[in-house]
Design brief:
Elements (H helix, E strand, L loop, with lengths): L16 H21 L7 H8 L3 H5 L5 H23 L8 H6 L2 H8 L1 H4 L6 H26 L3 H22 L3 H6 L12 H17 L1
Amino acid sequence: MVLRHRLCGGKQRARSESDKAQREQQILDAAEGLFLEHRFHGLTLADVARETGLTKAALYRYFRSKELLFIAVYRRAMTGWASDVEAVGPDGFPDQFVDRILAHPVFCGLTAILHIALETGLSEEEAREFKLFLLAQTRRLTAVIAAATGQEEATCLRYLMQCQQALIGCWHMSHPPEPARKAMQVEPLTVFQVEFADTLRHHLRVLTEAFIL
């Protein structure tokens, strides 16, 4: 396997703040792909270290647990999506809203396993800090939706949570474990095949129509 994110001089300790920031971004790039390609519970920090060319000890200097690494990757993905929605603005809702979600497949895939990734491995304070981050990003999104629809923030929040639930369900239905995926490629089981983008569009269209009315 070719290491796609191997760091130059990965076993040498980053000295400057810019070097550390660059290395952290490279770690997040590598972890992002691994979180999407592998089942979360089967992935280890050793896998991430191997992908980046770092030693485990060097990786631990940046992230002491797989859960905290996941959170860092998720923060970057969600912040990017929220910024994208803000850039489009209220005039883009609802027509471009689903497009903006589908334009961020990393955010979609990580959201689908968020509840699995954070089952264990976090302290109460770490969990609280992450939930506060989620709340802050959600408020960025609800502000755009509220400006577009005139709905109250609490109503927009419920709508966003329903969208998240639809996303999670559609992702898992369209990304089954490998044995199930192969089985569904042969008749008569092809009826269970689900395409993520089209299915999510359908669900969010129904949710959005009910929300706007």
